[in-house]
Specification:
The chain is mostly beta strands. The protein is 9% helix and 64% strand. This is OmpW family outer membrane protein.
């Protein structure tokens, strides 16, 4: 939590620095053809709490727990019309997978995930001081560089999910914006443990929350 707070504070300081460098210029307007590039600190917060069962489907008494992670990401928002924009985010996070239940709490796997999300946004007041937006789109969860732990072998399936989004840009000064953003992604994956001796249908369904500094082009 201390690391997260420090990172968020650093992003806020960058916003202040950007505003100062713009010398209090009037905010630059955006419209069709504009691009906003946003450097963010992003948290991917899975909501998994699914049962682990045997190959025959019997309840093992254990559940899946997937840890949170915070990492820098980049967002690219392109205005296809004055009030409509397409956003793509790029970044990767690392998550620990644990099996929990009763007196058991053991790490079974650690993996990186690349969760690009592409959304179509509606921005009713893109040039207001505070410009809110909503969006909807798709995500693709790709797991890589997995590391098994404590004698377990874990396989996770990649796949697509759907996403809803809400956020706002604060048009600070000149080309600079301060951004807050939240996405809810619905994504399920099948996890196979020790060659399928244990398995789980995992609803990761992460919240993807961000704060950052953007620049208009």
């Amino acid at each position: 939590m201390k690391t997260t707070a420090a990172l968020i504070a650093s992003v806020s300081l960058l916003a202040v620095a950007g505003a100062a460098s713009a010398q209090n210029a009037a905010p630059e307007p955006v419209g069709k053809g504009s691009l906003i590039v946003t450097a963010r600190m992003t948290g991917v917060l899975p909501q998994a709490d699914d049962a682990i069962v045997t190959a025959a489907g019997a309840d093992s008494g254990l559940k899946v727990d997937v840890g949170d992670d915070w990492m820098p990401t980049l967002g690219f928002t392109y205005f296809v019309a004055d009030h409509w924009a397409v956003e793509a985010i790029l970044g990767a996070t690392q998550h620990e997978v644990r099996a929990k239940g009763g007196a058991t709490d053991v790490a079974v796997h650690e993996t990186w995930v690349l969760p690009p999300v592409v959304t179509l946004q509606y921005r009713p007041t893109p040039n207001a001081t505070v410009s809110p937006y909503v969006g909807a789109g798709v995500s693709y969860m790709a797991f890589f560089s997995g590391k098994d732990k404590n004698g377990f072998e874990v396989d996770l399936d990649n796949g697509f999910g759907v996403a809803l989004q809400a956020g706002a840009d604060w048009n600070i000064s000149g080309p600079w914006t301060l951004n807050v953003d939240a996405k809810k992604v619905w994504f399920d994956t099948d996890a196979r443990i020790n060659g399928g001796a244990l398995k789980s249908s995992v609803s990761l369904d992460p919240w993807v929350v961000s704060v950052g500094v953007g620049r208009k082009f």
